[in-house]
Specification:
The complex is a heterodimer.
Chain A (H helix, E strand, L loop, with lengths): L16 E6 L4 H4 L7 H6 L6 H4 L24 H11 L3 E5 L12 H20 L6 E6 L5 H11 L5 E7 L13 H9 L4 E4 L5 H4 L1 H6 L3 H22 L2 H4 L5 E4 L5 H15 L11 H8 E4 L9 H10 L6 E2 L12 H8 L5 H16 L3
Parallel strand pairs in A: 1-2, 2-3, 3-4, 4-5, 5-6, 6-7, 7-8
Helix pairs in contact in A: 6-7, 10-12
Chain B lengths: L5 E7 L8 E6 L2 E8 L2 E6 L14 E6 L8 E10 L6 E3 L15 E7 L2 E6 L3
The chains are: A alpha/beta, B mainly beta.
The complex binds FE2/S2 (inorganic) cluster.
FE2/S2 (inorganic) cluster binds next to loops of chain B.
């Protein structure tokens, strides 16, 4: 552990980048940006009938807002996002979707692709082109038609504020090590963009139906949803050698906290050591790829009362080189910069803490 | 609290009906005062989890389960204050966090004199 100078206050941070700043886009906001035939299909008909009034994202019976105990803030406009930046002292935000994380579980790959395009155009028009310099976003893709997703990446990769590509990682099946996704990885490589994976609890209904059906509340389900999603995708990507085949692509796992990272990578090392002939693509231990190619956003920080345990988790995967602070605001389990700062500042040197709050994200997303 | 005991006017008692709340800044602290069925509770508007605006949260009840019972119930309507940020639930009277009694909200005494409601700071 570094013993050099420590940062004393959050004001000592050079820059704070929120690497997972959700907007809460509403289905109706996307309709004007939809390609035909979907635009016309959603413009007419009986507004009371569910799938005519607006695009039909999946729903479930879970009590997300705890009957009003939780306030679910609406961040569907640039103004609301600017207020969030001010409230938490954020210099840059990586805008990520909410509803459009559900695209992987759609049945119709045409429709999912049309929604991803509409969402991206909505973000460009209503956030990036009008918003402050601090707004950055990732191109949202649907994985269902990988060739079309690659076209979407090519279409928008030159936008100066589009700094990565994001996919809702819950429900991507087969998982992301499968060769059907090669067009996506090639487009990422060609356009020199990081690949961002973000789970969605709401997708569990169809992504992992037995887990959803077995968990009786949002809370039970949410213990598992993000880490299980990311473990499933990471294991597939490592097992099939994605970081060996595409060594220049930085891969960012969001919103699963940090505890699962050392667990997964050391468990995978163990399989690799004992069953190496099942992983012939790999040239080194899975954990080494994790340390070199993979990045992680911090929220939700697990909160043991002794912060030294958090520091130990971080050290187990050289986390100060790969962690990126994130709020996840406006979702109910968001973190504030102070929470993370107070947890790590006594355990790491100034330079390491600066990297976690902005340096790592600036490097991966090319933010100046 | 070691500072000197001071008393601060919040409002007249009739201005705060049962079920209502009022938010006031009193010597640099934001304090919420709640009338729960005629009983007054004063709470600092600062959630001990991460500083959220606890006094803006929903005041309602809690879900309970009697040992051994399969059915769940709703109890203590009006006594449980939930933080709008991450949902931590507190007993509005004692300030205690329901999931871990090591945490509690900062609460203040209230006093009524001649139809005026006061909160008392310090001197405890
Ligand atoms: S700030 Fe109140 S629950 Fe987190």
């Amino acid at each position: 552990m570094a013993t050099q100078d420590r940062l004393r206050s959050i004001a000592d941070l050079d820059v704070v980048i929120d690497a997972d700043a959700h907007i809460s886009e509403k289905a109706e906001q996307l309709v004007p940006y939809l390609d035909e035939p979907y635009k016309s299909m959603f413009s007419g008909g009986d507004k009371e009938s569910a799938n005519v009034a607006k695009p039909g994202y999946p729903k479930d019976e879970l009590f997300r807002a705890l009957g009003g105990k939780l306030q679910w803030e609406d961040v569907s406009t640039a103004e609301a996002e600017m207020e969030a930046m001010e409230r938490f002292g954020l210099d840059h935000v990586l805008i990520t979707p909410t509803l459009n994380l559900y695209l992987p579980i759609f049945s119709d790959e045409r429709y999912a692709h049309a929604l991803s395009k509409a969402y991206n155009d909505f973000v460009v028009a209503e956030f990036l082109d009008d918003g402050p310099d601090g707004f950055k976003a990732a191109i949202t893709i649907s994985p269902l038609a990988p060739d079309k997703a690659a076209e979407e990446i090519d279409r928008l990769a030159d936008h100066p504020d589009m700094v990565g590509v994001i996919v809702g990682s819950t429900g991507v099946f087969p998982p992301l090590g499968d060769r059907r996704y090669d067009p996506i990885y090639e487009a990422l490589e060609d356009n020199d963009m990081p690949f961002v994976l973000h789970g969605a609890t709401g997708s569990f209904t169809s992504a992992h139906p037995f887990i959803k059906r077995g968990m009786k509340s949002y809370g039970e389900l949410h213990v598992l949803s993000h880490p299980v999603t990311q473990m499933f995708q990471m294991t597939s990507m490592l097992g099939q050698g994605i970081p060996e085949r595409y060594p220049d692509i930085d891969i960012v796992f969001q919103e699963a906290g940090i505890g699962w990272i050392p667990f997964t990578m050391y468990r995978m090392d163990n399989e690799y050591e004992k069953r190496r002939s099942e992983f012939p693509t790999l040239r080194k231990k899975p954990s080494e790829y994790v340390k070199e190619n993979f990045y992680f956003t911090t929220q939700p920080m697990i909160e043991p009362k002794q912060s030294k345990y958090v520091a130990w988790f971080i050290e187990m995967f050289d986390g100060t080189d790969s962690l990126m602070f994130s709020t996840d605001f406006p979702h109910y389990d968001f973190d504030t910069p102070e929470e993370l700062f107070n947890m790590i500042r006594n355990h790491f040197g100034a330079e390491e803490v600066q990297k976690v709050f902005g340096g790592n994200a600036a490097e991966v997303f090319g933010i100046e | 609290m070691s500072a000197e005991r001071t008393r601060h006017r919040i409002c007249s008692v009739d201005e705060l009906e049962p079920g209502e709340r009022i938010l006031k800044t009193v010597s640099d602290r934001e304090i919420g005062v709640f009338n729960v069925d005629g009983k007054f509770h004063a709470v600092a508007n600062y959630c001990v989890h991460a500083g959220g605006p606890i006094c803006e949260g929903r005041l309602s009840g809690m879900v309970t389960a009697e040992a051994g019972e399969w059915e769940w119930d709703w109890a203590r309507e009006g006594e449980i204050l939930a933080c709008p940020w991450h949902g931590w639930e507190f007993d509005i009277d004692s300030g205690e966090f329901l999931a871990d009694d090591q945490y509690r909200l900062i609460t203040y005494e209230t006093e009524i004199e001649d139809g005026t409601l006061y909160v008392v700071l310090g001197g405890a």
